[in-house]
């Protein structure tokens, strides 16, 4: 059984994680407007401290993925569950 203090700490950690995620999505959106594909990838690798994994038109950074369009501009940003982009046909 968890104590009220443990539940409070857990809830605070979840809120902090969500805030970090929101900031990351905002960063990617702003990068998409200013930078080319390779610079977006390099910046994400640097900020997240992980190597990019290329999966078709998507680039995966652990549980965060960026899908690029034909013009090499950011088309979509999303979270992955299993570390792969999976079937993205529904996003077109």
Descriptive notes:
With 92 residues, the protein is of the alpha+beta class. It is 47% helix and 20% strand. The chain is built from 2 helices and 4 strands, in the order H-H-E-E-E-E. Strands 1-2-3-4 form a 4-stranded antiparallel beta sheet, with helices on one face. A hairpin with a 2-residue loop joins strand 2 and strand 3 (64-68). The longest helix has 31 residues, at 4-34. The radius of gyration is 16 Å and the shape is elongated.
Helix-strand blueprint:
Blueprint: H1 4-34, H2 37-48, E1 53-55, E2 58-61, E3 64-68, E4 74-79
Antiparallel strand pairs: 1-2, 2-3, 3-4
Please state the structural category.
alpha+beta
Mean pLDDT across every amino acid position: 76
In the sheet with the most strands, the strands line up as: 1-2-3-4
Spans of at least 5 consecutive residues whose pLDDT stays below 50 are: 87-92
SSE sequence, one letter per element = HHEEEE
Helix proportion: 40-55%
Indicate the overall shape: elongated
> Rg, please?
16 Å
How far apart the termini lie comes to 46 Å
| Quantity of strands, as a count | 4
Biggest β-sheet: count, sense, barrel? 4 strands, antiparallel
